[in-house]
Amino acid sequence: MSQYDRIPYSSFLWKFGTTSFRTNEFNKSIEWQLQLLDEFWQKPENEGLGWEEPVEGQNGIYEIKDRYYDWLVEKGFTVGNDKVKYKAAREKTSGLVDMGLIDREHRLTNVGRKLLEMSSTHSYDERTELGISKDSELYLGQLIKLSDGNTGSVVRPFLIVVYLLSNLDYLTYDEFKYLLPLCINADTTDSILNSIRVLRDGIGSIDDVIIARLMDRTNYVEGLNRFVSNPFSDDLLLSVGMNRKSAAYDQKYSRLYREMHAVYMDDDTERVSALFDAAKKISSSCTRKWKQLLFDTSLTSAVERAPSSYIKDLPREAIESEENFKRFFYLKMHLFKAKATLEDYFDLNRRYLNLSNCFIFDEEQVKFDIVPRQFFRPIADELYEHAYESSALLHQYCPLSDISPLLTFNESNVISGINSEFGTEITDISEAYSEVERQRYSRFNAMIDKKFSKETIVRLLNDFDSRNDSEINSLVTDNADIPTIFEYILGIIWYNLSERKGKVLDYLKLSLDANFLPVTHAAGGEADIVYEYPKTMQYPKHCLLLEATLSDSTNQRRMEMEPVSRHLGNHLLKTGNTNSYCVFASSFLHINVISDFRGRKRNIYCVFQNPENYISGMKIIPLSTDDLRAIVKWDIPYAELYDHFEQAFQSDETHPQRWYEEYVDINNSFYKESEHMMAAESAADIE
Known about the structure:
Strand order of the largest sheet: 6-7-8-11
Number of strands: 11
Mean pLDDT: 91
Radius of gyration: 30 Å
Helix content: 55-70%
Shape: globular
Number of helices: 32
């Protein structure tokens, strides 16, 4: 039995949600689970049951959670490989509780039901005064109301974010990751704000700030005093490790301490390899930090070959006495643990903030988007006065102004803020939104230049063919499914070949976050990208419907033949512009799908209720990812493609395979044309 009582862990940071709720396709996951929970409680065998109450069945108190997990598996939400069902069910719903979308009994709250309604009716993309979608404004309200009490007192993280950004304009990723979550009360927030300003002047380090904040907490001070005042033992170290889960997780630090002491305090160079091995055994999130502190290499083979060549010196004061060495070890142990925890929550906090669509994460900086910045900046200080009190409205859907009168949209604040930021002389809100739109397109173009070069787009097209989903998510986003990302990349390809003219952000018909990356919703969205072209010398005024699919040979016939022609037919009937047409892009072109689309040239498409209202003939051009790769590689402009598609449409060939290969295939057609031109140029040179 240990002679020391364990010093308890207490949280030193706030966070949004829990890491167990950190999922890909975040918006879709939330909306889908609300739908599944709503359906689950409507099942007769579950009605009236409680989430935490014992239920008759094999697993007692966990029975209803097990049932819900099985329901998630049945509906395809999860694959069913979790070892403990009830634990997985709790983890997969934890974020919904934190966000106030469901209550403790896991029934949908008023606000959760409103979000589900938005999802099912596709109304989430309607824009609000803040320039964000309706569902994003709902999330914004929830983030403003949400509080975290894990630090021993109440803190509303979003209000801390607003306060710091309004005072500092931006946060670097390191400031956002390591310092922002340490603002857990008025004193620490003031201290962190001042520390960031000092750090930006090149004074001190983030590590110093973290240690200072840890040592503001009584448990860390008590642990340090105990550690340096008593002879080292395993029990001593475990008592001051303050592991969040169990002291047993800190066992490996005992060996690390002994090996460090042998090498640095006893000058035993024979123990260098053992020290490296001990550092390797620490948890993966901390081992890299210990290696960087102690060694010039992370390679085991290098240390084994020449141990003394790679060991680093510690600061002189750290080895001047046993007490100093213990102090050094204790502070580094807790610094590295704290940084690992903060790193773990970085992605989670970013995901939650991104739900509001108010923040830009780019160039290693976090800042407000334009309109949210002008909205929050004038009220930030007054709003901050409520940062350490909870809101009673977490479960209620309400306008932002009901949360606080300060959150009433003020047009004059937005107009004056935009004028100040961009040097404009705008006088009304419509002009302000026009300037915002101009700035958005400037940033969107810069994003494409940076993130989606020709080489990257070709690489992504290859990945769509091979379904290398992990790389696609890495290169684009993990908040959208792969078919949505394919539509998005097709839209970017078409924007580029259209010389970046036109309102592509409207044409895309996709939900985009503040960083212009796609977001998938549970209920799906419009399948079309509708690109609008004005009349030019090369073509008439028309719309181009872009349809994208990754469905395989069997599914393509069932899923695409009817919807594609229906979308185009309805569009032509609605607009009356028979110059409009459709491009169907896929990683696989089924011969009978090509045949169906080619046959539409001769078919009549009628209004169901009025057969006399019809259009005769539709132009649908099928393109493969090979065709898209050729378009990208050769920079083929839209005017040339339009002429190429029109010639293909007007040709007399009816056999689908011959028609596609002879008249549509971009590689074949443009390669032949290129060969012909080069031959003509060569003949001219000879003459």
